Amino acid sequence: MLAPERQARILKELQLHEAVRVADIAALLNVSEMTIRRDIETLDQNGLARKIHGGAMRLARLSSLEPGFLLNVDKELVAKLAIASEALKLVQPGMTLALTGGTTTYQLAVALAAELDRLRNLTVVTNSLKAAELLYHQQGSSDLKVIVTGGERTPSEALVGPVACLALRNLNTDICFMGVHGLDVDRGLTSPNWLEADTNAAFIDATTRVVLLADASKFQVRSLAAIAPISAVDTIITDDGIRPATADLFASRVPNFITAAPNSAASLTTATATRKSS
Fold it and tell me: Cβ–Cβ contacts within 10 Å for residue 181, how many?
């Protein structure tokens, strides 16, 4: 089990119990107590739990945390980690990045936090409360700047709505890393939340390059509200669980289609077809 999986499980246990013991979690996950102590240390440093003698305690705000983020953070986690690893390769020092809400973009925030010694002078604009919180704790030891949009909070721990859109209209980013609920060739990028769809559209308007982070389960899915057509996307990064026919279809619609293989080097397919105008 990977570290983010263990840490997500610890957070879920803290949703159910005010405190957890290292020994109990180690037995539950069949790992050493030292491993769990390191996981708790990470959660404590990132402001997600409080380390106590022999275990961890739930933060007061965690008791009222909306369930969306924690329920989804460990779904398709291996795929999300592979996607985040590929996305990280597109980041260069000095860039201004946008991260939308979601658990895949959160894994990219985790990857960024681990590489700040190399990726100097980054600015990250995000509407993800969890990504902002994680990256905020890295500011003291780096030259990272974190800008949070503001707005109305969703169960997925994102800030959306008119306030978020207004903030984005005054900003410019080099790359927007976006997560979506659904992705369809005909209907484009979609979300079940109208306000989130509008906010993600504002992220697209404020960036030079849109990089979509979507595991295989997101393809050929249509949600209620449209964000943008496929033609708005420069790059799609997915995992190797995608069906070959689906990969070929979407690779023909975007300039760059990257398949991130968790256990091997990822392959990069550049579509030969030029992007159609919307």
Answer: 21
Q: What is the DSSP string of 109-168?
A: HHHHHTTTTTS-S-EEEE-BHHHHHHHHTTGGGS--EEEE---EE-TTSBEESHHHHHHH
Asked if residues 81 and 107 have their Cβ atoms less than 8 Å apart, the reply is: yes
Contact present, 97 and 123 (Cβ < 8 Å): yes
253: number of CA atoms within 13 Å, CB side? 19
Kindly report, residue by residue over 9-33, the tens digit of the pLDDT: 887 788 677 899 999 999 999 999 9
Q: Phi/psi class of residue 161: alpha, beta or left (left: φ > 0; alpha: ψ in -120 to 50)? A: left
Q: Confirm if 177 and 213 have CB atoms less than 8 A apart.
A: yes
Q: What are phi and psi of 91, to 5 degrees?
A: -90, 135
How many whole angstroms separate alpha carbon 54 and alpha carbon 23?
Answer: 8
What is the distance between the alpha carbons of residues 64 and 40, in angstroms, rounded to a whole number? 20
Closest residue by Cα to residue 78 from 8, 4, 180, 26: 4
pLDDT tens by residue, 170-180: 999 999 999 99
Q: Would you say the pTM of this structure is higher than 0.85?
A: no
Whole-number Å distance between alpha carbons of 138 and 176: 21
